[in-house]
User: Fold these one by one.
Assistant:
Number 1:
Amino acid sequence: MPGATFLDSTELVLNMGPQHPSTHGVLRVILKLDGEKVMGTDCVIGYLHRGVEKISENRTYAQFAPYVDRMDYVAAVSNGLGYCLAIEKLLNAEATPRAQAVRVILTELNRIASHLLWLGTHALDIGAITPLFYTMREREECLNIFEKYCGARLTTHAFRIGGLNWDIYEDFEKDCKRFCDYFLPKIDEYEELLTGNRIWVERLTGIGILNIDDCKSYGVTGPMLRAAGLAWDLRKAQPYSGYDRYDFEIPTRPNGDTYDRYIVRMQEMRQSVRIIRQAVEGIPEGPIMARIPKVIKPPVGEVYVSIEAPKGELGYFVVSDGSLNPYRVRIRPPSFINLQALDKMARGSLIADIVAIIGTIDIVLGEVDR
Amino acid sequence: MASAPWDNEMTQRLAAKFGPAISEFATYLGQNFMVAETASVPAIIEALKTEEGFDYLVDLTAVDYPNKPERFELVYILYSFRRNERVRVKTRVLEGQKPHSIAAIHKTANWLEREVFDMFGIEFAHHPDLRRILLPDEWQGHPLRKEYGITQMDDQWVKENLAIESGH
């Protein structure tokens, strides 16, 4: 820089990503730094944009269903559930009780798998390597159940508009119960490694604070909102797929910092186990598909349906013009909207904390970019 | 769309306050929405936020109807934590019309309006930072417009870079 002296105090612009291990995919963040202090951030996204919403307009309702799995690919089951519920709402239909119970079990297993991947990578970012191996080991068990159920592990396409693609396999209940018994003590194991660990606590406490008002203003939902102290979960607020039949709690924390978001997600895994245990006990007998037409042609209209995905509110706004293809499918991605709050959380923090703050949002770039 | 009228204390208050600016209150499959004039949308959203408790902008998007005189429909989805209710505010905008940004009311709208601009080419007046968000800056056109073909970009690239017609 011409005229700059050695002790010049101008701000430095630093590029982070898109190829950076702790951006969890292809996220580029432009940081404005004053020494070690972050003065501002700008996210550059879209590297994984595949035009999912455009594709929907060129596919039939059933053909589009597998595409949604590829948005948040670590929680594909939730994506599929939201889409199916939206189209069922347009058709004014409802899945059968058996399908609903299986949907709840698989979705909660997927929530655990998603949180486990988050925990492992987040801990790795902070410098704790061991938890990643532990969480991958347990996540494998979840994925094995998916594989046995539908043959796929990540992009499962487990559900079908009106119900399920396949009925459950013979030992499904046994496998789920065994997983719950096996997994619950493992959460204690992770907590033993991290919750009281001094480095972990010091790196996370008071970092990236978002209070309830910030969350509302930025539209931040999911564990981030609950860690700020608001007990709001769509599974309770506007129950779908029979969640009102199960007894579970919404974990909250008061401070809205990175540490609290960690605690909330750990508690959520325990609650998911609780839901799975209840749901597995009484999977109702009966058909897996509701009586819906073979050719899906919803009447002219539009609906917005949303679910509590592992990352927050995942919504589908679907417009039908009465033809075979959706006229418009708008996906409200929690990761995209939560990421917008990065600037708010990062301003004034240190450069080393950026990694913790990106990790705590729990973004999946496939969903941010769609 | 076989929607039914939506009438309660809140709609009456809004109707009294905004008069003809809100042309319709309706409900479809249990979901409430109102249709409003574009110029009044920021004031309506502000009133919904401060007076009625709709303090969370869930989503903001657009739908393209190229055959209608007012080409685009902007859809604002709002939620109230206090009431546990959702409402949609819809408005029609002409090609080239610049609706006022609501980023000053809901910070979420910043990126959401950028995405609508990116995908539909609707410019928002007084937006703090209106740039493309998902597509690169040099991208031509706005893909979610109906006339934008799904293979258009591919064909163009193949033609320009390989000097052949596209293979599909």
Note: The first strand of chain A starts at residue 12 and ends at 16.
Number 2:
Amino acid sequence: MQNKKSKIFHSDPRTKLYILLICALVISFSTSIYYECGLVMLILCFGVLNKKMRYSFGMAMLYVLLVSVSIMGALYLSGTPRLMLSAFTDFIGKMFPCIMAGGILVGTTQVSEFMAAMNCMKMPKNIVIPMTVMIRYIPMIREDWGYIKDSIKMRDVAPSLSGVLVHPGRTIECVYVPLVISASKVADELSAAAVTRGIETDKKRTCLEEIHFNFFDAVCAIVFTMYLLGTILA
Amino acid sequence: MSGISQKNNKGMTIKDMVTTGIFAALCFVLIMLGGAVFGVNPVLTFAVPIGSALLAGPVFLLLIAKVPKNGPLIITGIVTGAILFATGMHWTTDIGYILMGIVANYIAAAGGFKKIRLNIIAYMVFSLAGVGPYATFFLARDTFMSYMIKKGTEQDYLDTMTNTGQMWMLPAIIIGTLLVAFISGLIGKWLLNKQFEKAGITV
């Protein structure tokens, strides 16, 4: 159990969702890269306060790298390569703040906490359960894919474009079948686990992890909202 | 497994919801993967919906086969739209996935979720969701341009997009997307028949 002190900077999942929404809105309204840099700085602070030190700094460094690459490209390249590069950095740069905030959300939120938050927001079960499962499962797909790739290689099928061109049928089978079968196994196991824990009851869900807003949540929400307003008005 | 979940929630059991979540995650990743290959290049950017349609077909069809009820496709649409919004996509894509999820659901429902042809058509319709931004690009070019410039997209990128994007491109994108989605659906049908039904996954 965490003690009272370490809880001061533990923000509510709803706050994190709100911040994610604000990030998406800031990106929609931002008129220049400066706003995005500022946003990444804010998210960095938020991540550090949520004790995601390494992840936040790593992502921030990556963003700095991305921005410097795009500046270098604008300075030294011209014509088509420049366009390609700027399109690439632009594309990634637009998605970056949201991905970073999303990573912090997923990395710092327990599944039970997330479900409790969704229940507090009175979301219907039909959305809450698939959403929760999805957020947990997306990182697992990458892990699965690594194993599948290894086994495919052992059977002398290349999991690449050339493989698809040379042996279309076999490659497609070797990629999809394990991916889908493992997915449906996981679905069976997860639903059995969830039913065992009494997800089906009509009673109100309780949670060991109590979620409630605190002072830190309010500060975060206000800071991010101010930032959004600033971006819109500028 | 059928004995575990008796309680129905609008016809969907817990197992259905978990299955929907997992397959929606797979669909989402495959859609992103197919689209990302083209999205970074202004000339190829029009091919994004086509690329997105390429990979997810088998997973989509299997989801229908596993949970042949009203709901999973709508949920897939909503969840995909929500996550795409959170990653900063053009807003028509997000609305598109939600709408197309609903439409696809009713197309598949017309065949009782059992008619593979209707299911493939449902997938083709669902794939059209990615066309949204391009439709606004062609039909309301000025609005789109000012929106994208406000978003900070580089002028050069948009110029190249304008030069590549002649008026005949819109029907071409739509037809291309439908065609690729159809092929993807056929692959899905073939996999379903050959592998998944034998393995007893499609219950």
Note: Residues 18-196 of chain B form one domain.
